Amino acid sequence: MSLLQHLSTTISSSSSAFLAHSNFNSRTKNVSLQAKRNSIFKCVAAVPKESQTAYKTNVSRNGNLAKLQAGYLFPEIGRRRAAHLLKYPDAQVISLGIGDTTEPIPEVITSAMRKRSQELSTLEGYSGYGAEQGEKSLRAAIASTFYTNLGIEDNDIFVSDGAKCDISRLQVVFGADVTMAVQDPSYPAYVDSSVIMGQTGQFQKDVQKFESIEYMKCTPENGFFPDLSGVARTDIIFFCSPNNPTGAAATREQLTQLVKFAKDNGSIIVYDSAYAMYMSEDNPRSIFEIPGAKEVAIETSSFSKYAGFTGVRLGWTVVPKELLFSDGFPVAKDFSRIVCTCFNGASNIAQAGGLACLSPEGFKAMHEVIGFYKENTDIIVETFNSLGFNVYGGKNAPYVWVHFPGRSSWDVFSEILEKTHVVTTPGSGFGPAGEGFVRVSAFGHRSNILEACKRFKQLYK
Description:
Blueprint: H1 3-29, H2 63-67, H3 73-87, E1 94-95, H4 107-119, H5 136-146, E2 157-160, H6 163-174, E3 180-184, H7 188-197, E4 203-204, E5 209-210, E6 213-217, E7 236-240, H8 252-265, E8 268-272, E9 297-302, H9 304-307, E10 315-318, H10 331-342, H11 348-357, H12 360-386, E11 391-393, E12 399-403, H13 409-420, E13 422-423, E14 425-426, E15 437-441, H14 446-460
Parallel strand pairs: 1-13, 3-6, 3-7, 7-8, 8-9
Antiparallel strand pairs: 2-10, 4-5, 9-10, 11-12, 12-15, 14-15
């Protein structure tokens, strides 16, 4: 018998034995296995592991993106929320984490957008590309509404698809060779965009900071305003007031110090005033209320949290003509070039909504929506105060900054989510000085705010 015949006989015998054994088991397990006659057994070589690997290009990854830690804060919260829902599919989860508005846009504003949209279907009303800097009428309305008597003119204003987008465009203007400072804690887009642009070194895990960023510590002990005498000189200073996440608003005296600090150091302030309309106290609503600010500051703002435009997308940035680079070239001209190169202007429908926001009726309607969210804030503040927590913010911004001393922010986030099904935001996601705090957003339907506060009381009573 040849070797091939021997192998064939052996395999055939083994197959018969296996099938007989399987048929015996089928009587006890109700499993039926059908034997195939004249089966051919082939020896197939294993596919080399290398050939199973996906094709790769020869293009290197942007090393700056590789520096970023985990995911951007709010998508990471979204992932954890989704995982929680898989674990508790019937849970009624309340989201007070990401600062997304929840109340409908006032009718006086949506009707203007609807009218503009319908006009686009007519020959007379159709319009294509507009000015990249924004429609003149809207730029004029922004100037007259928010910058009256501040020396800001229509052509200093650039209308955009939101303050967050403009922050990244400004980073492109500044380039990779600048140094930057940021409030700690602060909105994470400032730091992440700086990292992506290559302005920083690596992330230092031991201190939870990126190299080459000046973190200006803002805590209850210093009234959430940095001690500028201990802040190193940088080219760019990102500053948000009212602050996200702490809710703290800088006083006139503090902003005067900041402008002087920038002038003394030849720095540029990027001032984020996205929550200025929430101000209850007599604090500046614009950096340009401070004398000399036009020579050292840029201001960015948005309709997102005023009119519920988080999905509509409309904002603006003010770059005064007086602001110059070290060689005397106007910053506004470079920003305009970036806008014209990377952006085709805000949606004409959104801009129609912006104009309606700044009409007397629209402005009143915006204030009513803001007033509603401020009432939500009062409810949240009262809840945590009654539970004995130290609570900050809430007066000038739609965020409540709650202190959990000695505890990890992510642990508190997880505890609240697990035991109350309420999503908050861990303070450490805004910077190392945010550790031990949790941000609670006041953006929510009233019924959800009341229910969330009821659950907080049950958890921490």
